[in-house]
Amino acid sequence: MKKLTLKDVAKQLGVSTATISNAFNRPDQLSANKRTEILEACKEIGYTGPNRAAQILRKGQSNIVALVLADSLDYMVTDPVANTFIQGVSRVLRENQKHLLLYAGDSDTITDVVDFVDGFICYGAPRNGALSTQLNQQSKPVVTVDFNLEGRPAINIDNEKASYEIAKAALRPGDRAAILGLRLIDSPSTCRIYDSPLLDAESSITYRRLDGYCRALKEMGIEVATDWIWNLPENAGMYAVQAAREVLQSWPRPDVILCMSDIIALELLQCALTMGIDIPGELRITGFDGIEEAARTRPYMATVCQSSVEKGMEAAKLLLSGDNTSMSLPYEIKLGETI
Amino acid sequence: MKKLTLKDVAKQLGVSTATISNAFNRPDQLSANKRTEILEACKEIGYTGPNRAAQILRKGQSNIVALVLADSLDYMVTDPVANTFIQGVSRVLRENQKHLLLYAGDSDTITDVVDFVDGFICYGAPRNGALSTQLNQQSKPVVTVDFNLEGRPAINIDNEKASYEIAKAALRPGDRAAILGLRLIDSPSTCRIYDSPLLDAESSITYRRLDGYCRALKEMGIEVATDWIWNLPENAGMYAVQAAREVLQSWPRPDVILCMSDIIALELLQCALTMGIDIPGELRITGFDGIEEAARTRPYMATVCQSSVEKGMEAAKLLLSGDNTSMSLPYEIKLGETI
DNA sequence: AACAAAAGGTTAAACGATTTAGAACGCTTA
DNA sequence: TAAGCGTTCTAAATCGTTTAACCTTTTGTT
Fold first, then answer.
1. Which chain A residue is nearest to residue B88, measuring alpha carbons?
2. Is it the case that residue A1 has pLDDT exceeding 70?
3. Can you give the distance from the CA of residue B16 to the C1' of nucleotide C10 in angstroms?
4. Paired residues of A285 in beta bridges
5. What angle do CA B11, B15, B20 make, to 5 degrees?
6. Before A233, cis peptide (omega within 30)?
C-alpha cells in the first residue's frame, strides 16, 4: 500500500508524467478536456497531487516563510506585542496560502532552514548577532521589522520622533528624569547603564527611542546621566519588576520615568501604586506600544500606540510582493492619565 | 556564483559524493582523519552542508513539526492558554533541533504540508471537522492535546473529574446554577443551548467538563436545564462579555456560575463587580485553566489549574519519542475567593 | 600462512517531481 | 505538394541528496 507517485498515475492513465504535472500546475499546457479527465481519474484512484517535498526541491519554492523572532520563542510568544504581530503575519500568509515557520532569534544559525524557506520576516534584532549577518548574506528575501538590516526593506514607525513627542508631553522644566530601557547593553540582568558599551546602536529601535528621549530632555535643559538609565535584557515582567523597585527606591526619586515598553511601564505603575506614590502627582510615567492592558489600568497609561497587527500584515505583504522599499507606519500619542 | 553542491565539492576534493555525505551524516562510515579533512575543506571553500530541500525529499524527514491549533491562528495566538502551550512545544522542539510550523485548525486541508512535515501536534479539536479525518487517515505521527482522535496518543487532564470537583466545591444545596460553556454546539455567536444538536461530543474536552458539572449537580439534587447552559463559539473576551451580561440579567439570577475557562470567568467577574453584585456572597463563580491573570483578580478566582507549558512539552516529547501511549497530566483545584 | 572479518571507499540507483526541447498531428495557405 | 503554424503531448535532463550494494585493502585469528 505504498503512496502513489506521479509516475504511477501516468502509467495507469497511459500518458506521460509531464502531462499529469501540467494538469496540476499549468492548465494552459493542455486541453481543458484532458485536464478534467486527468484530475478526475486522479481523484478516483486516490492521488492527491504532486508530492510537496519533491516540489520544494525541484521548484526551489516551498510556500514556507520563516518568522524570526528576536528572542527565544519562550519569551516572545507571551509578549502581547509580539503576539499580535504574529497574528497579523499569519493572517496575510494564510490568505496567500503560505505557511508560517516560527524561528527563534537566539538560534545558532539559519543554515538548517535557509535551503527550504522562501523568505524571512525578522521581528526585532536577533539576540544572536551572528544571525543578522547570516540573514544578510543569503539571497532569499528578508523583511525586517523594528530593526534595520542593510539593504533590506524594513517596516517601522518613527521611533525617535514618537519617543521625543511622548517625552516632551511628560516633562516639566527642572524635572529629574529616569529611563527604563530595553536591550541597550549586553547584560543578563536588570542594571544601570553607566559606561557599558552600547549594543548594535545602529540597527536597534530602542536606540532610536533613547535618541528621542534625549532630544526632549536636552530641549528641556535636563541633564541625561547614564546612571539614570536602566537596562532590561528582555521585555518581560520579571525584569521590569526588578527595575521598577530599584528606580523607585533610588534617592532622590525621579519626577518622570520614561519606559521603553508598556510591559515595563505597567509593572512600574503597579509597583508605585503599591508604595503609595501618587500618579501623576508625585511621579509621571510613560509607556510605549499601546498594548490593550495599558488602556485598562487606573490611571490609564500615557503611551505611544502602534498597531502590531498592521505591522505584521504589512511585513508579510511586503515579503510576498518582493518589493524592496521600506515603510514607515503611523503611530499615535495617547496622553493617558499618568503624566 | 551558483551555490555549491555536494557533487561540486566531491569533484574538488577528489572523492565520491557518498563520502562527503557520510562526513556530514554518518561519522562511523569513514575514518576520523578523512572526516575532519573533508569538513575543513568544506568550510574553506564555503560549503555549508547538504541542501535541506534535497535532504527532505531523499530522507523523507524534514525536522519540521506542524502544530495544528484548533481555531484560526488569529484567535489562538492571543489566548494565554494556547500561548503558554506553544511555549512548551517550542522549547522541546528546539532542544531537539526541530522546527515549528504553525498551522490553523480552520484550514481546508493538510495535503499541502503532510508531504513534508514529520508529524502533527494537534491542540484542541480542529474547527474544520474534515481536518480530523484527514489527520487520522495519513500515516505520519499525530499527538492530540485536549481532544481525542481514535488510535492516536493523547495528552489530557481528567476534565470530567476536575470539573466535578470544582463544581462540587462551589455548589450548596438548593442552588440555582448556570454553565458558561465552550464549543458545545455549532453557533457563530453566544447563545443558550436549548435543544441544539451537540458538536462532536465524543472527542471534545468541553463535553467532559460538562459531564463533570452535571454529575456534581445531580449529586446535589440540582436540576440541569439546557436553557441554563450558554455556549460560546470561541474562548475570547468578546463572546464572554456577551454571555456574562445575558446570564447576569436573567431572572431569577443563578447562585453559582460554572465557567469552562478562566477567560470567561474573568469577564463574568468583571461584569458582576461592575453591576455591584457581591462575590461570593450573592454569586459564586468558578473558572477553568488557571491562567496567571486569574490569580491577580480581587477576589481571586476559583479555578482548575493545569500547566499548559507542561502540556506543550509533553506533547512534543511524546511526538518525538514515537510512543503511542496517551498521558493524563495532573491538575490542581484552587478554591480561590469566588466560591 | 591461510582465511575471515572489519575498515574505508566507490558506484549507481533511488527520492518524486518540473521543465525544456522537440515530435507528431491536423490544419491552412501559397 | 510542400511549407508553415498552433496545439497537444512525450522524452529526457535536472533538482541535490542518501544509501544499499559492492569492491579493495588492512587487520585479526588460528
1. A74
2. no
3. 6
4. A257
5. 95
6. no
pTM for the whole thing? 0.91
Q: How many CB atoms lie within 10 A of CB B160?
A: 18
Region for residue B221 given its phi and psi (left: phi exceeds 0; alpha: psi -120 to 50; beta: otherwise): left
> CA end-to-end span of chain A, whole Å?
71
CB A181 within 8 A of CB A232: yes
Residue in B227, B213, B204 with CA at minimum distance from that of residue B286: B213
Closest chain A residue by Cα to residue B1: A139
What are the φ and ψ backbone dihedral angles of B93, each rounded to 5 degrees? -60, -45
Question: Which residues, 6 or more positions from A281, have their beta carbon under 8 angstroms from its beta carbon?
Answer: none
Out of A60, A62, A87, closest to residue B78 by CB = A87
Is the Cβ pair B111, A48 closer than 8 Å?
yes
Pick among A58, A102, A103, A121 to test the B interface (most B CBs inside 10 A) = A102
pLDDT in tens, A131-142: 999 999 999 999
Q: Do A70 and A59 touch, CB atoms closer than 8 A?
A: no
Phi, psi of B88 (to 5 degrees): -60, -45
Phi, psi of A275 (to 5 degrees): -80, 0
Average pLDDT estimate for B12-22: 92
Q: Encode pLDDT of A59-72 as tens digits.
A: 999 999 999 998 88
Contact A39, A48 (CB under 8 A): no
Domains of chain B: 6-59 (1.10.260.40), 64-156 (3.40.50.2300), 159-305 (3.40.50.2300)
Which residue carries 530599584 as its cell?
A246
Nearest CA among B313, B285, B312 for reference residue B298: B285
Measure CB to CB from residue B87 to each of A74, A100, A111 and give the nearest one.
Answer: A74
